[in-house]
Amino acid sequence: MSLQSIVIVGGGIGGLNLAHALVKYNPSLSVTVYEQIKSPNHQQGWHLGINSQGLDAMKEAEIPDLDKATDKNMVSAFVCVDQNLNELLRFGGPMKQGKSDSALAILHRRTLHKLLAKNVNVVYGKRFTRYEEHDDHVDVHFEDGSKVSADFVVGADGCWSLIRKQLAPSIRYTPVGVTQVGVMFPAPDPSAMPTLMTWLDFAMLRSSSPSGFSILSGIAANDDGGKDMFIGISWVDNAIKEMLPESNQEVHQWMKQIVKTHFHPEFSALVDMTTVDHIVLGGPRKVHSTNYQEHCPLLNIKHKRVTLIGDAAHAMTTNKGMGANTALMDSIDLAKTLTSSDWEGGLADYESTMWKRGSFEVKDSLRNTFRNHSTGPVNFAMSKVFMKCFNQVLVWKGISYY
Ligand SMILES: Cc1cc2nc3c(=O)[nH]c(=O)nc-3n(C[C@H](O)[C@H](O)[C@H](O)COP(=O)(O)OP(=O)(O)OC[C@H]3O[C@@H](n4cnc5c(N)ncnc54)[C@H](O)[C@@H]3O)c2cc1C
C-alpha cells in the first residue's frame, strides 16, 4: 500500500528538499518536518557552496524563488592556491569560448534555509529523542514528552543524528585530527584585497601553507542587500604545540596571529578588520567525519519504516564541499522511492545508492582534508605537485581553463 504520512526529523538542507520533492511527486501525501531549532531565524553559521548537482536537486524539487536567490550568488569555480597566493588547482571558472561556465552558488546558510522552508509544514522547537517501529506505523518521541505517529520516518537530523544512533550504531562520527575556526563579516571594498579579488570575483578560494594551516574564503550576498565574506582557518592538530585558546576573545587574537605568520598579507589585513563578534565557528571546533564503510550497514539491519539521508547517514569533512550537495541528491532519490507504490521493495535500492554516493564522498573528503593540511616542506611540495598535475588533467579534459 502507498504511504499516506511521512515524518521527517530535521529541517536542514536534505530534510526540507525532501519535503518539497515528496509533495511534488504525491500531492496528497501528508509530510511534516520536526526541527529542534526554535525558529528559522536562528544563527546558522556561514556560507555553503551548492554545485550543479545540488542545484539540479533543488530544481527537481521545485523550490520556489530558487533562481532569485542563486542568480546574485553564482560563482563558477573552486580554486586552490598556496600561502603566497600562487595558483595550484582550479575547478571550473571562466571557460574557453563556446563552452559554458560551471555553476556554484555560494549561499548563506540562513538564506538557503528560508528558501527551502517556504511552503513546508515545519514544526520548530521539537527535539527528537527516539522512535518505535511497528508493523504498520512508527511512533516518534520528542524531548518535550510528546509523540507523533506516521507510516514512515526519515532521519534527516544531520551529523549528530539520534535516528542513526538508534538505527545503525556502527556508523560512528569521530574527530579526524583537524580543527577549525571562522569569521564572517561585511565584505570589504575590493581595493582592500586586490590579489585575492583575482579569484574571489568568480570562485571560492582555498589557500594552504606548509605549516599545516589552511584558509577557506569566499564572498556572497546576504539577505539585507549587502555582501558578506567568510574566512575559515583550519589546521592539523599536530601543527600546534601550545594549548588552544578557548574564549572567543582569545580565539580571535590567536587567529590574527596565525594568519599574520603563515599567510599572504592581504589575508592578515582582512582578519585584522574583524571583531570577536564576527566569529561563526568559535570553539575552536573539531572537524569530524563518519567512519568509511564500503558496504551499506543499513542493508544488514532489519527495518522497514525508517531510513536516513544526508549527514545523518554519511557526514563528511568540509574539505570537498560535498555534504549539502550529497544530502540534496539523496533527497530526490528517496522522494522517488517513497512515493512509488513499491516503496518497500525500493528502500534497499535507495539505501545502496545513497550509501555508495555518500561513502565515496566521505572517503574523498578525508583525502582532501589531509591534502589541504600537509605539514612540512616535503609533504607540502608533493601536494603542490599533485595539484598542479591534476590541474593539467582538468585543463586537458576541458573541466577548467586558464
Ligand atoms: C563550516 C562548514 C562549511 C560547509 N560547507 C559546505 C559546502 O560548501 N558545500 C556543501 O555541500 N556542504 C558543506 N558543508 C556541509 C553541509 O553543511 C552539510 O553536509 C549539510 O548541511 C547536510 O545536510 P543535512 O540535511 O543532512 O543536515 P543539516 O543541514 O545539518 O540538517 C540537520 C537538521 O536536523 C536538526 N536536528 C538535529 N538533531 C535533531 C533532533 N534530535 N531533533 C530535531 N531536529 C534535529 C538540526 O537542527 C538541523 O536543522 C559545510 C559544513 C560546515 C560545518
**Quick one: CATH class of the domain at 5-44 and 113-174 and 290-370?**
Alpha Beta
Mean pLDDT: 92
Question: Count the strands?
Answer: 18
Question: Could you state the order of secondary-structure elements as H and E?
Answer: EHEEHHEEEEHEEEEEHEHEEEHHEEHHHH
Question: Could you estimate the helical fraction of the residues in percent?
Answer: 25-40%
Distance between the termini: 55 Å
InterPro entries: FAD-bd (IPR002938), FAD/NAD-bd_sf (IPR036188)
Keywords: FAD, Flavoprotein, Monooxygenase, Oxidoreductase
Protein name: FAD/NAD(P)-binding domain-containing protein
Domain FAD-binding: 6-339
Overall description:
- The chain has about 400 residues and is α/β, with parallel strands linked by helices.
- It has a domain at about 5-45 and about 115-175 and about 290-370: FAD/NAD(P)-binding domain.
- It is about 35% helix and about 30% strand.
- The chain has a 7-stranded mixed beta sheet. The chain has a 5-stranded parallel beta sheet with strand order 8-2-1-12-18.
- Strand 5 (about 75-80) and strand 6 form a beta hairpin.
- Helix 1 (about 15-25) runs parallel beside helix 4, helix 7 runs antiparallel to helix 8 (about 265-270) and helix 10 (about 325-340) runs antiparallel to helix 11.
- The chain is globular, with a radius of gyration of 21 Å.
- The model has no long low-confidence stretch (mean pLDDT about 90).
- The chain binds flavin-adenine dinucleotide.
- Keywords: FAD, Flavoprotein, Monooxygenase, Oxidoreductase.
- This is FAD/NAD(P)-binding domain-containing protein.
